[in-house]
Each structure stands twice: as structure tokens, then as C-alpha cells.
Design goal:
The chain is built from two helices and eleven strands, in the order αββββββαβββββ. It is mostly beta strands and about 190 residues long. The protein has one domain: Lipocalin (Beta Barrel), CATH 2.40.128. Strands 1-4-5-7-8-9-10-11 form an eight-stranded antiparallel barrel. β8 and β9 form a beta hairpin.
């Protein structure tokens, strides 16, 4: 093989490896969807989280796109109040028995330079699927000294109207339907 062709082949291989799509598995122990919901039209705000989440992310930094698949166990909801947890899991609100998972599928991402800034996707809750875009306000990747592989961390947020997903309980009493969602997540690279 001629030296110039050999160098070109090596460079092409390096570039394809450097910019190949990266696949990450979300670390369940570091990924918690949090939410805020109104109580009595501003009397107070209830905050909670889901404690069991799995998922995968694919990032293609050169193409400036990516996907996100998240599965949340509905029955893992926790607002720090056992009676309210039972109400949230009941058929009145999340119906965890009928709908054991809440799913978010990010079909694409919007980048600003080299960083993703928005996930464009759909939320499936109570058997209803609606568009929901998530804003990314922080994103960082680094080599983990614990896992000996690259890990990326992200903080995303968005909001939705719970009535759009059939969760109408207490709206007639003046409860606001907006749910604010914030998710901190960390993902461990698969292909390193």
C-alpha cells in the first residue's frame, strides 16, 4: 500500500471512530424525574420524583442529533407522603396498575454548537401520547474514574398540561393543570 493511501486510510478510520454516534445507558441510580404540581390553586406546591427509571441515549455530535428513550415505573412515584403516594398510584391519577410505565421518546435533538440544548419528543402517560419538548440547561461529559468510561450528565426541564393526558382530578376545585418536570440524569457510554 502506498504511504499516502495508508495515511488516508488511518485518518478515515480515526475520524469515523471519533465522530461515530455514541450510545449511553442511563444510570438508574443517578436518574430521577422530578415534578411539581399545584395544590389548591397556589396554596402550596407538591413536589415528587420517580425512583425507578431506565433508558438509553444516542448522540451523534457530528450530525448534531440524537435520540432518547426513557421508561419510568409509574408505581415508583414518591412525594414523601404515603397516603398521597397511594392516591397518585390509584386509578384517579396515574393508574399504575393499568399503566405500569410512563414513557418518553425523544426523536431528535437540537444543538447549539457542540452541545445539545433541546430534546424533541413525545410523552406517553395514562395511555395517551402527546408532544413534549425538553429544554437542556446543562450538559457535561467526562471520563469517570469509577466506571473507567465516559459518563455524561444532563439537566432537562419542561412542562405539560395533565388534563391532556386524562388526569382531571380536582381541576373543578381550582387546581391548576400544569405539571413542571425536571430530570437530572447521568448516562454511561456503551461503545467505549
Amino acid at each position: 500500500m502506498k504511504p499516502a493511501l495508508l495515511v488516508a486510510t488511518i485518518l478515515a478510520a480515526f475520524v469515523s471512530q471519533t465522530y461515530a454516534a455514541e450510545s449511553y445507558t442511563l444510570l438508574s441510580s443517578h436518574t430521577y424525574p422530578n415534578f411539581e404540581a399545584d395544590h389548591w390553586n397556589g396554596l402550596s406546591v407538591w413536589r415528587g420524583k420517580f425512583t425507578k427509571t431506565t433508558g438509553n441515549v444516542v448522540l451523534d455530535r457530528e450530525a448534531k442529533t440524537g435520540t432518547l428513550d426513557v421508561v419510568i415505573e409509574t408505581a415508583s412515584v414518591d412525594v414523601g407522603h404515603s397516603t398521597m403516594n397511594a392516591v397518585l398510584k390509584s386509578s384517579r391519577i396515574l393508574d399504575a396498575e393499568k399503566y405500569p410505565t410512563i414513557n418518553y421518546r425523544g426523536k431528535s435533538m437540537r444543538f447549539d454548537g457542540d452541545k445539545p440544548v433541546e430534546v424533541i419528543g413525545d410523552l406517553t402517560l395514562n395511555g395517551v401520547t402527546k408532544p413534549l419538548n425538553l429544554q437542556i440547561d446543562s450538559f457535561k461529559c467526562m471520563k469517570s474514574y469509577i466506571y473507567k468510561r465516559q459518563v455524561c450528565g444532563v439537566n432537562v426541564f419542561g412542562s405539560f398540561n395533565r388534563a391532556d393526558f386524562g388526569v382531571n382530578v380536582n381541576l373543578e376545585l381550582g387546581f391548576r393543570p400544569e405539571i413542571k418536570l425536571a430530570i437530572q440524569a447521568e448516562g454511561l457510554i456503551n461503545n467505549e
